[in-house]
Automatic annotation (TrEMBL):
One annotated GO biological process: positive regulation of neuron differentiation
Gene responsible for this protein: GDPD5
PANTHER family for this protein: GLYCEROPHOSPHODIESTER PHOSPHODIESTERASE DOMAIN-CONTAINING PROTEIN 5, GLYCEROPHOSPHORYL DIESTER PHOSPHODIESTERASE
Transmembrane segments annotated in the record for this chain: 43-63, 90-114
Descriptive protein name: Glycerophosphodiester phosphodiesterase domain containing 5
Entry keyword annotation includes Cell inner membrane: no
Keywords for this protein: Hydrolase, Membrane, Transmembrane, Transmembrane helix
GO molecular function per UniProt: glycerophosphodiester phosphodiesterase activity
Organism this protein belongs to: Callithrix jacchus
Lineage: Eukaryota, Metazoa, Chordata, Craniata, Vertebrata
Example of a GO cellular component annotation carried by this entry: plasma membrane
Amino acid sequence: MVKHQPLQYYEPQLCLSCLTGIYGCRWKRYQRSHDDTTPWERLWFLLLTFTFGLTLTWLYFWWEVHNDYDEFNWYLYNRMGYWSDWPMPILVTTAAAFAYIAGLLVLALCHIAVGQQMNLHWLHKVSSGFPPSPL
């Protein structure tokens, strides 16, 4: 009679799976790593932090300039020839970009806190690697 060893049991780590899955699209246990983060990924973390600062500054600027929205619209009307309310779409877009980048930064800090290797997914690198450009 052949005696089989019991299968190895892994306790489910749902929080860690969601953390590594959302940040780096590494949903499976074998894709996670406790190795040191590569210098390339550290550079992406610095770029993410820098982009967060730029987006925060840009959001603060558009939030505080609300008294001059009408003058900004008049300036654009004189240049383009038609009236449009531009500050609100700019403010909403900037707020959405800020929320996205802030979420990525929180996930990266959680990776550091739990000791997981940071591996930012390429889609996040493309979308967060470019700070918002002024008009």
